[in-house]
């Protein structure tokens, strides 16, 4: 596991560099804020609360990073629909007082090749509204598991930049994501350095951790392959690891983000997804599984004793009740 070293800090945001600094190479960081930790740990943070909290966290991270980009060059790229979650247009305005930066949109949804396939293809990619200044620095946010949508979206972005004769200068990418994000951004970084002589930086910002994506043989009782972002085997910010002790439910959640699109925009589907997981945990508890056993499976290395005596059945029932309240009307 690569070492983390503190590189940037502002207010409550910290950015840890992954590995050593290498000039002219992809810069990878793990960023941590109270808001991004809350999103990972508490699935009841959903809907508008979720997107506002994520935008505010991105604002803090941008202030810490302080990228050397003029407002006139800044282009926020929304890969629909997940990119909308990050609120980067408003985050840049809140961080730096900007008002005239550009925003563009493109659709790129993924689908499995077959119901039980681990291969994916792009669908729903017919919408694109992209326009750039003559020199452009891209700010992008997306959730990355397989990376199918990200690779397609960024390749289309560079194609459009070439068609419009734009000089691409920088790329700053925010993600709740796994290792595929770095693999794809290294490819894009190499392409940009080859095509654009004045290209500067590719910056990858993992929120709270570089999480793992389970495969069919990952030793978990419950997993969604190609979709979930799990704590098992992840490279995580020390603040995030310590935050797991805030509640026994935190380290045993199925996914650090669940479905980001439905979490923001279609809560009925999202709530049922999370409740479905906790119903499975309830069944495990009814068949004798303990909290300590599930913790050792999903987040080994944590000290189960620090949580005290935890009844997995009672915890599962409490989480189901909490998620049901997410859909309660405001009063």
In a few lines, what is going on in this structure?
This protein is α/β, with parallel strands linked by helices. It has helices spanning 34-41, 48-65, 88-96, 148-163, 180-195, 238-243, 260-265, 267-286, 291-298, 312-325, and strands at residues 4-10, 13-18, 27-32, 74-80, 102-107, 109-112, 120-123, 128-129, 135-141, 167-177, 201-212, 230-236.
Can you describe what's shown?
This protein is an alpha/beta fold. The protein has two domains: 4-210, Rossmann fold (3-Layer(aba) Sandwich); 212-325, no CATH class. Helix content is 37%, strand content 24%. The chain has ten helices and twelve strands. The protein has helices spanning 34-41, 48-65, 88-96, 148-163, 180-195, 238-243, 260-265, 267-286, 291-298, 312-325; strands at residues 4-10, 13-18, 27-32, 74-80, 102-107, 109-112, 120-123, 128-129, 135-141, 167-177, 201-212, 230-236. Strands 1, 2, 3, 4, 5, 8, 9, 10, 11 and 12 form a ten-stranded mixed sheet that branches. The chain is globular and about 65 Å long.
Overview features:
2 domains; 331 residues; ten-stranded mixed sheet; 37% helix; alpha/beta; two-stranded antiparallel sheet; Rossmann fold
The main pleated sheet reads as: 10 strands, mixed
Task: Return the CATH class of the largest domain.
Answer: Alpha Beta
In total, the number of strands is 12
Number of domains: 2
Order of helices and strands: EEEHHEHEEEEEHEHEEHHHHH
* Rg from alpha-carbon coordinates: 20 Å
């Amino acid at each position: 596991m690569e070492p983390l070293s503190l590189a940037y800090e502002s207010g409550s945001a910290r950015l840890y560099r992954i590995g050593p600094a290498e000039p002219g190479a992809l810069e990878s960081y793990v960023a941590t804020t109270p808001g991004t930790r809350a999103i990972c740990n508490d699935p009841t943070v959903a809907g508008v609360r979720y997107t506002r909290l994520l935008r505010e966290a991105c604002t803090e991270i941008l202030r810490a990073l302080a990228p050397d980009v003029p407002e006139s060059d800044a282009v926020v790229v929304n890969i629909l629909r997940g990119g909308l979650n990050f609120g980067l247009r408003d985050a840049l305005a809140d961080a730096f007082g900007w008002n005239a930066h550009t925003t563009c949109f493109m659709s790129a949804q993924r689908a499995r090749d077959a119901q039980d396939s681990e291969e994916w293809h792009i669908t729903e990619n017919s919408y694109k509204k992209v326009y750039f200044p003559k020199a452009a620095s891209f700010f992008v946010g997306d959730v990355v598991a397989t990376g199918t949508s990200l690779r397609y979206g960024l390749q289309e972005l560079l194609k459009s930049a070439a068609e419009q004769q734009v000089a691409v200068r920088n790329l700053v990418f925010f993600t709740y994501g796994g290792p595929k994000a770095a693999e794809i951004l290294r490819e894009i970084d190499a392409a940009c350095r080859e095509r654009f002589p004045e290209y500067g930086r590719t910056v990858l910002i993992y929120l709270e951790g570089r999480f793992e994506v389970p495969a069919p043989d990952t030793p978990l009782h419950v997993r969604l392959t190609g979709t979930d972002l799990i704590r098992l085997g992840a490279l995580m910010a020390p603040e995030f690891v310590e935050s797991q002790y805030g509640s026994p439910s935190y380290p045993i959640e199925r996914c650090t983000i669940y479905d980001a699109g439905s979490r923001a925009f279609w809560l009925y589907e999202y709530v049922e997804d999370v409740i479905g997981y906790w119903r499975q945990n309830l069944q495990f508890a009814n068949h004798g599984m303990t909290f300590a056993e599930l913790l050792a499976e999903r987040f080994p290395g944590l000290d189960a004793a620090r949580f005290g005596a935890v009844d997995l059945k009672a915890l599962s029932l409490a989480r189901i009740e909490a998620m049901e309240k997410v859909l309660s009307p405001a009063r």
